[in-house]
């Protein structure tokens, strides 16, 4: 491996998620020349120069229409064929149990099988991912590499100092992130309505469609304790949103969700979470500093969510700083277990082992 090793990291930029910037910037500091996947076949010279291709969320397809879905699928098959033909090293990061896009489920699973069979390494961000992969692909063991999700400390700006003297009721809950159906926002709104006096819920993020925006606005209509900031939230505003909350609430789908950058974001800025016990939560093993839960049905999900909100309300009423203290302990844990410099270092080591 040389200081100017040419690789593709896809996507190499994402305005809605600094996860990509952390890794790409870190790789470039270690001497890697990072290119876009779109440029992979731009010229024979460029194609030959690429030594390694690292794909993220590659199994997700454009399901806006049947035609778009099939076009997306075949384009990705061409990319994988080019990687194989060119004898490039292939790395795939497993982010989710399943694709979140329901319409393209079968094609997405077929693409995932292709990725797994062709990859020289499969990066996972949580231990449970290995169990899932080994269950589906028993011979995969040697390819699996566990590298934690990087922390977001100071990535979106400095953390705002706490004002512990003026924390008061009601309990301020925050949902933050892209607004998509699998994140169960409707369920969250339904539960929040039951706590009209004790809870103030803010939902902040950009809906994936105008129809879904209208659906959520209709759902929250008449609920004075629910604020919908349904728009893209600029990076520099994220610390303030988090600072104004007592904790984040993220009722993700256990069927598809496995890792969560928003959970890591909340911890990085000193807030704990109410969240199903997905892989990100499981790995940190934080005990009572996280309000995690499990469920099998939608009704069980609603009950579990309501129960954890009640627990948080009681703690907040007894000591308005107790939730903040939990958040700060989670921040220390993430800075230790998910240190972004160490994450990049381990990725560089992986690339080195594949390219030697």
Write a structural description:
- β3, α3 and β4 (89-94) form a beta-alpha-beta unit.
- With 356 residues, the chain is of the alpha/beta class.
- It folds into two domains: 6-150 and 339-355, Rossmann fold, CATH 3.40.50.2000; 164-336, Glycogen Phosphorylase B (Rossmann fold, 3-Layer(aba) Sandwich).
- The protein has helices at 18-29, 44-49, 66-85, 105-118, 127-136, 185-192, 210-220, 238-243, 261-268, 279-284, 298-318, 322-337, 340-355; strands spanning 6-10, 33-35, 52-56, 89-94, 121-124, 144-146, 171-176, 199-204, 226-229, 247-249, 273-276, 291-293.
- The chain has 13 helices and twelve strands.
- The chain is globular, with a radius of gyration of 21 Å.
- The mean pLDDT is 92.
């Amino acid at each position: 491996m040389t200081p100017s090793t040419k690789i593709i990291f896809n996507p190499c930029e994402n305005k809605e998620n600094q996860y990509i910037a952390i890794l790409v910037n870190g790789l470039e500091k270690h001497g890697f020349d990072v290119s876009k996947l779109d440029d992979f076949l731009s010229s024979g010279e460029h194609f030959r120069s690429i030594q390694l291709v690292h794909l993220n969320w590659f199994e997700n397809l454009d399901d806006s229409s049947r035609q778009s879905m099939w076009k997306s699928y075949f384009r990705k098959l061409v990319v994988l064929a080019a990687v194989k033909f060119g004898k490039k090293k292939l790395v795939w990061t497993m982010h989710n149990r399943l694709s979140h896009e329901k319409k393209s489920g079968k094609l997405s699973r077929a693409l995932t099988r292709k990725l797994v069979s062709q990859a020289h390494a499969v990066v996972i961000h949580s231990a449970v991912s290995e169990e899932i992969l080994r269950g589906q692909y028993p011979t995969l063991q040697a390819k699996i590499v566990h590298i934690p999700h990087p922390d977001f400390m100071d990535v979106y700006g400095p953390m705002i100092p706490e004002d512990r003297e003026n924390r008061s009721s009601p309990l301020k809950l925050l949902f933050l992130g892209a607004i998509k159906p699998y994140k169960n926002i409707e369920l969250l709104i339904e539960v929040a309505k039951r706590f009209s006096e004790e809870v103030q819920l803010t939902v902040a993020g950009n809906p994936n469609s105008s129809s879904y925006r209208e659906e959520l606005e209709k759902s929250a209509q008449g609920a004075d304790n629910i604020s919908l900031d349904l728009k893209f939230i600029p990076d520099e505003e994220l610390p303030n949103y988090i600072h104004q909350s007592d904790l984040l609430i993220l009722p993700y789908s256990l069927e598809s969700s496995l890792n969560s950058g928003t959970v890591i974001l909340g911890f990085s800025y000193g807030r704990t979470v109410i969240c199903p016990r997905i892989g990100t939560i499981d790995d940190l093993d934080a005990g009572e500093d996280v309000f995690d839960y499990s469920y099998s049905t939608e009704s069980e999900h609603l009950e579990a969510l309501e129960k954890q909100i009640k627990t948080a309300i009681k703690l907040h009423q007894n000591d308005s700083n107790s939730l903040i203290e939990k958040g700060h302990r989670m921040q220390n844990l993430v800075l230790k277990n998910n240190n972004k410099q160490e994450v990049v270092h381990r990725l560089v080591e992986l690339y080195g082992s594949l390219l030697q």
